[in-house]
Design the sequence.
C-alpha cells in the first residue's frame, strides 16, 4: 500500500517480520515477453525493483493513475534513456498526463542548469489498447477513474473500490486475477479483504492474488486461511501468462 511495509514508526508483527514476503515496496507490475516489456506504474522504489529483477529494457510505461505511490519513481527511467538513447513512451489518461507534466515540470520545461541529467518521456493517450492483446479499461478508485489491464486471460486491478457493471463480463472466468485488497477494515477508496474475496468469488478466476497490501496481512498465516486458488502477492512474484 502507499505507506509500504514495514511502515515508518510501526513495530507490529508484520513490520518486524523476518519473512521477506512481508516486506512490501509500492505496487508495480512488469509484463515481460516478445512484443510486451511494459512497465505498469513507477513507484518510489522503482530503481530497487528494476535492479532486483534485473530489468534493463522497458519498451513502454503505463500509468494507471497519478497518486504518489504510483508515479514518484519515474525519474529513475532516465538510466534507461541513457542506455538506449531514446525517450520512454509513457501511456496515460489525459488528466494523468497533465499531472505528470506538473509533477515532472523539470522534464517538460527543462531548467537552465541540468545537474544529474533529465529523463526523457513521450506522453501518449492510452485508449483502450496498448498492444493487440493488452486491453485497458476504467475501474473506480473512490471517485477517481483508474486503469485496469487485461492480457489474454490475465487481469491486473490495482487501487480499485468498484468495478463498473459493464466491465465485469470481461473479467469472468480468467486464468489469473490480481486485485487490490489494501486492508482488512473498510476503506473509502480501496477494496478491503472481504470485498476483494467477494469479487473473486463472483468472477471465478482459476487463481487470484491479493495486492496493494498493508501491514494487516502476515504472509504465511494469511495464506493458510485463504480460499483455494487465492494467495497474497509478494515482491518478486512471477506469474506465467499462457
Sequence:
Amino acid at each position: 500500500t502507499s505507506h509500504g511495509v514495514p511502515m515508518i514508526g510501526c513495530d507490529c508483527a508484520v513490520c518486524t517480520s523476518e519473512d521477506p514476503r512481508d516486506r512490501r515496496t509500492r505496487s508495480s507490475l512488469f509484463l515481460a515477453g516478445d512484443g510486451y516489456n511494459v512497465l505498469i506504474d513507477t513507484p518510489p522504489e522503482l530503481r530497487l525493483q528494476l535492479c532486483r529483477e534485473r530489468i534493463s529494457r522497458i519498451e513502454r510505461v503505463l500509468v494507471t493513475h497519478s497518486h504518489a505511490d504510483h508515479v514518484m519513481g519515474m525519474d529513475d527511467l532516465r538510466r534507461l534513456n541513457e542506455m538506449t538513447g531514446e525517450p520512454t513512451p509513457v501511456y496515460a489518461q489525459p488528466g494523468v498526463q497533465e499531472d505528470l507534466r506538473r509533477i515532472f515540470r523539470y522534464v517538460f520545461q527543462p531548467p537552465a542548469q541540468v545537474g544529474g541529467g533529465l529523463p526523457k518521456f513521450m506522453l501518449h493517450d492510452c485508449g483502450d489498447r496498448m498492444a493487440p492483446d493488452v486491453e485497458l479499461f476504467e475501474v473506480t478508485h473512490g471517485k477517481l477513474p483508474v486503469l485496469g489491464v487485461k492480457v489474454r486471460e490475465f487481469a491486473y486491478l490495482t487501487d480499485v473500490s468498484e468495478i463498473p457493471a459493464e466491465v465485469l463480463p470481461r473479467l469472468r472466468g480468467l486464468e489469473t486475477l490480481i486485485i487490490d485488497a489494501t486492508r482488512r477494515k473498510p476503506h473509502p477508496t480501496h477494496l478491503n479483504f472481504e470485498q476483494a474475496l467477494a469479487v473473486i468469488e463472483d468472477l471465478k478466476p482459476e487463481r487470484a492474488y491479493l495486492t496493494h497490501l498493508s501491514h494487516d496481512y502476515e504472509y504465511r498465516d494469511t495464506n493458510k486461511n485463504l480460499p483455494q486458488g487465492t494467495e497474497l502477492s509478494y515482491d518478486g512474484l512471477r506469474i506465467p501468462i499462457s
